Each structure stands twice: as structure tokens, then as C-alpha cells.
């Protein structure tokens, strides 16, 4: 129950049950200082457009526990980034009053102007049709990717040569990598306005094609979008980015590295992380597959589960379809290996395909954010500066555009996650001009230079760690 004394809503869409009780509750302006005291899932207030909402205990919010990343803070822009127009109508029962005038006016005029300007830019992009997808583009992307899958399978079915089988493993790895980008687009609702279509397409490209649980991924990924490169304020808090939670293997800041100070294994990983980065990328996908199975079928007693998994399982409407999708994935992939290859070759094929894919996926993920600014949760800047300064674009060319699947425009994607990737080049021009005009530095590098930046950053953190915590 929130401090306002209202009970948590019981229905998934959170519509009528709170009703007028919520609105009538405070009957006075609320200060930002008050809002900032309500920061936990069971006691969560947030601001949207200078109105205060109490979402305490709303574990069945359809987007899951990501809502609590903004408990005690202004959620105006992150709300706009994630929700369809229909969600605005569901807000009213949670409203407990207006933010007081002094809290609104305390923000410097320049900051208010800046926020107004980037909200206007969003409006202009809507009017320009940037949020509308080209179905022909996605038909082409999906069918060309299925052609890669067919080529990979045929290499296994039609040849007895080990080298051709390994070519098949490489093609399947490429196929899965591209499936990752397609699932990403569908699950961000870039392609269909009807969200169920997006979720089903996500299950096809995620669960069936590549054995990835999209419910698990969506929960983690949306949280990452809400708070990129943020260190959680405490181990139990919901305000950190799960994607930089890579300890004990990789530390992206001295703060993270400090956790390894007392363990010999931890010190080893932090001190050598620049060298270990690529080997770690190779096994990344195998870890994601295990986490996906654990999430979908409640295995391993939740050992691999991330924060908010329980909420995500409850709220993802297509959980049974997800489970069926996983079964279909292991059936087709298992049948391919079992009917065409010896046991030893099948194991080699499985590991080679998974590792190559993991490497190609993680390389692109790493370019997106690793080595960019990190923040403490209580020191995050406004939405625009947070998204821009924690993110790196990759200079586009024909290969990069295909290989990175839209994430070469990571900055632009983070600001507007539901804009389809084929519109991002145009959006990027507007974003770059806006950043220049408003003195916000956004960063772009080639694939090679970006990867070197990631490695130098890891090396820099190791050096700081050794200096700060010399071995005894
Ligand atoms: C009073 C506050 C809020 C209300 C009433 C609300 C309501 C909703 C509703 C109705 C949906 C389902 C939309 C649909 O698929 O048709 C939804 C989804 C979602 N919400 Fe919220 N929400 C609130 C705050 C937030 C906040 C602060 C965040 C992020 C920090 C958030 C993140 C999401 C996400 C990620 C989804 C899932 C979108 C998807 O299907 O991919 N929500 N919310």
C-alpha cells in the first residue's frame, strides 16, 4: 500500500478498480520532494506532465516491473516512449493530484525549454509518419532471412563434408543473429500497431527460430531502455540497467569493479577483462539460452532469473505460446542435427553455431552502450541526455546496416524505440541537428573504432581498479 493509503489495483490494465478513490485522495498540490520519497515497488509515486500518479504495488502492470524504475521520479518521457495511445486513457485512476507550481518552476527555464523542444520534436516525427512501418520492407527482411536459414539447413542435409557443415553452422549463426534484430523490431511494436501481432511475430523469430524466450528478453530489454547504463541504487532496488549487470565477469565502471576486490577469481576477471572480452562474448548466447529455458519452464529454481521475472511471467499474455515455441525450436533444430550428423559432429555444430551467433550479437550490443557514460541511479540526467550520453551510434554503410539490424542508429532508437528501423536514417538527421543545436554531445564511431573504444574502456577500468585496490 502506498503512503497515500490506497490499495493496489487488481486488474491487469489497471482501469476501473482504483476509480475515483485515487483521484480524490490528496486534494492538494504535491511537491517533487514528496514524490521523491516514494521510490519502492510497494510505495511508488511518479510524475507525468506535472501530475502525480500512485502506482504502488502494481505488479500486474502490463509492461511489468519496469514501471518501478521511475518510482519517485518524472516518468513523462519514458511513458511516451513505451505506450500506445490507448494506455493514456488508463492513467486517470492512478492520479492523486497535481505537482505544485513551485516544484514545476524550480526547474531552470533553459531546462524546461529543452524538454519542451524534444517533446515537440517527437510530435513532429509522428506527424511526418516516422512511426509508420513499411510492410514491404519487413516482408523482404523476413523472407531474405528465411533464405539464409534454408541455405544453412541445406548445407547440413545435402553434404557429407565437415567443412560444408561448418559453413551451415555459420549460416545458422547469421540467421539467428538476424532473427534477434527482427524479434527486437516486432517486440518494440515497430511493425504492427496491433500489439498482439507484434508479440506473436516476436515468438516466431525469438522462441521458434532461435530458442530465445521473448518474455524474458522483453522484461530485461524494456528495463534497459528505461535506465540505460545506470547502476542500481542498491542490490534490491529496481532502478538499475540489467544489461550492465555483468559482474563477476566484466566491470564497466570502478564502482562495479570494486565488488571484486576481495575475491581472487573476481580480481582475475577484472584485471584481465580487456583480453577476456571476446572469449566471454563467445559463450554469451549459451548463457542466454539457459536463462530463456529457465524463464519459460521455471527451471533451476530461478537461479538465472533477473529482477521482475515473476511479474514478467505473470504479465506476458502469450506464455503458453512461448513455451510451445521453445518446444518447436528444439524439435526442428534437434531433428536437423540428429538425423544428419554423428553425435560428435552434432555437438561441434551446436557449439560452433551458438558461439558464432553469440559473438555477432554481443559485438553489436557492446557497441551500443559499452564504454559510454554510466550513472548512479540517483544522478540520472533528463530522458534525452540520459539516452544520448549512454549510447553510441555506428557509422552506417551497406554491411553495417545489414549486420547491425538498425542498431547502428542506437541513439535514435533509444530515443524513439517504436520507430521502425527503415525510418531511422531520416530520424537520425533530425536528432543529430537537435543535439547540435542544444549542445548535447552524441557519439558515433565506425565498428572497428567503437570496438577499440570498448576494449580501451575495459582496460581503463582494470587500471583504475589495480591502482585503487592493489593486490596484497
Ligand atoms: C500511471 C502509469 C502507467 C500506466 C497507467 C501504464 C499503463 C500501461 C498499459 C495499459 C500498457 C499496455 C499497453 C498495450 O499494450 O496496449 C502498458 C504497457 C507498458 N508499460 Fe506502462 N503504464 C504506466 C507507467 C509506465 C512506466 C513509468 C513505464 C516505464 C518506466 C511503463 C512501461 C511499459 C512498458 C514497457 C509496457 C509494455 C509495452 C509493450 O507491450 O512492449 N509504464 N502500460
What ligands can be seen in this structure? protoporphyrin IX containing FE
Order of helices and strands: HHEEEEHHEHHHHHHEHHHHHHEHEHHHEH
Mean of residue pLDDT? Answer: 90
Tertiary shape: globular
Strand-residue proportion: 5-15%
What is the end-to-end distance? 49 Å
**What share of the residues lie within helices?**
55-70%
SS-derived structural category = mainly alpha
Domain count: 2
Tally of extended strands? 9
Radius of gyration: 23 Å
Q: Helical segment tally?
A: 21
Largest beta-sheet characterization: 5 strands, mixed
Low-confidence stretches: 1-21
Please characterize this protein's 3D structure.
The radius of gyration is 23 Å and the shape is globular. The longest helix has 27 residues, at 343-369. By secondary structure, the chain is mainly alpha-helical. Helices cover 58% and strands 6% of the residues. It has 21 helices and nine strands. The strands form three sheets. Strands 1, 2, 3, 4 and 5 form a five-stranded mixed β-sheet that branches. Strands 6-7 form a two-stranded parallel sheet. The chain has a two-stranded parallel sheet with strand order 8-9. The chain has two domains: 19-106, Flavocytochrome B2, Chain A, domain 1 (Roll), CATH 3.10.120; 135-394, no CATH class. Protoporphyrin IX containing FE binds next to helix 3, helix 4 and helix 10.
Amino acid at each position: 500500500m502506498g503512503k497515500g493509503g490506497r490499495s493496489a489495483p487488481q486488474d491487469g490494465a489497471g482501469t476501473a478498480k482504483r476509480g475515483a478513490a485515487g483521484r480524490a485522495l490528496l486534494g492538494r498540490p504535491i511537491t517533487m520532494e514528496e514524490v521523491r520519497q516514494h521510490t519502492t515497488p510497494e510505495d511508488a509515486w511518479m510524475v507525468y506532465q506535472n501530475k502525480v500518479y500512485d502506482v504502488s504495488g502494481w505488479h500486474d502492470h502490463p509492461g511489468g516491473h519496469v514501471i518501478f524504475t521511475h518510482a519517485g521520479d518524472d516518468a513523462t518521457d519514458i511513458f511516451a516512449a513505451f505506450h500506445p495511445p490507448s494506455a493514456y486513457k488508463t492513467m486517470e485512476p492512478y492520479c492523486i493530484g497535481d505537482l505544485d507550481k513551485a516544484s514545476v518552476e524550480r526547474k531552470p527555464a533553459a531546462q524546461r525549454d529543452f524538454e519542451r523542444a524534444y517533446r515537440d520534436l517527437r510530435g513532429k516525427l509522428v506527424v511526418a509518419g516516422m512511426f509508420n512501418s513499411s510492410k514491404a520492407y519487413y516482408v523482404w527482411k523476413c523472407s531474405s532471412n528465411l533464405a539464409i536459414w534454408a541455405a544453412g539447413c541445406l548445407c547440413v542435409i545435402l553434404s557429407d563434408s565437415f567443412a560444408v557443415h561448418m559453413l551451415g553452422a555459420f549460416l545458422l549463426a547469421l540467421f539467428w543473429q538476424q532473427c534477434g534484430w527482427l524479434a527486437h523490431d516486432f517486440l518494440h511494436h515497430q511493425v504492427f500497431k496491433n500489439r498482439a501481432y507484434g508479440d506473436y511475430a516476436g515468438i516466431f523469430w525469438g522462441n521458434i527460430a532461435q530458442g530465445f524466450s521473448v518474455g524474458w528478453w522483453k522484461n530485461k530489454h524494456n528495463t534497459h531502455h528505461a535506465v540505460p547504463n545506470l547502476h542500481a541504487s542498491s542490490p534490491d532496488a529496481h532502478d538499475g540497467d540489467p544489461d550492465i549487470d555483468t559482474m563477476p565477469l566484466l566491470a564497466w565502471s570502478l564502482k562495479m569493479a570494486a565488488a571484486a576486490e576481495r575475491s581472487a577469481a573476481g580480481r582475475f576477471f577484472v584485471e584481465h577483462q580487456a583480453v577476456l572480452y571476446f572469449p566471454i562474448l563467445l559463450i554469451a548466447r549459451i548463457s542466454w539460452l539457459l536463462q530463456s529455458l529457465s524463464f519459460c519452464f521455471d527451471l533451476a529454481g530461478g537461479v538465472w532469473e533477473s529482477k521482475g521475472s515473476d511479474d514478467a511471467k505473470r504479465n506476458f499474455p502469450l506464455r503458453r505460446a512461448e513455451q510451445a515455441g521453445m518446444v518447436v525450436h528444439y524439435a526442428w533444430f534437434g531433428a536437423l542435427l540428429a538425423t544428419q550428423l554423428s553425435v560428435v559432429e552434432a555437438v561441434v555444430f551446436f557449439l560452433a553455431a551458438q558461439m558464432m551467433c553469440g559473438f555477432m550479437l554481443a559485438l553489436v550490443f557492446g557497441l551500443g552502450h559499452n564504454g559510454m557514460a554510466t550513472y548512479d541511479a540517483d544522478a540520472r540526467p533528463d530522458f534525452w541526455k540520459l539516452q544520448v550520453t549512454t549510447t553510441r551510434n555506428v557509422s552506417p554503410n551497406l554491411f553495417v546496416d545489414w549486420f547491425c539490424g538498425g542498431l547502428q542508429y542506437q541513439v535514435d532508437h533509444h530515443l524513439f524505440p517504436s520507430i521502425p528501423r527503415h525510418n531511422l536514417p531520416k530520424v537520425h538527421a533530425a536528432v543529430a541537428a537537435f543535439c547540435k543545436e542544444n549542445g548535447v554531445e552524441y557519439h558515433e564511431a565506425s565498428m572497428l573504432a567503437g570496438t577499440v573504444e570498448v576494449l580501451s574502456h575495459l582496460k581503463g577500468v582494470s587500471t583504475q581498479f589495480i591502482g585503487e585496490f592493489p593486490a596484497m
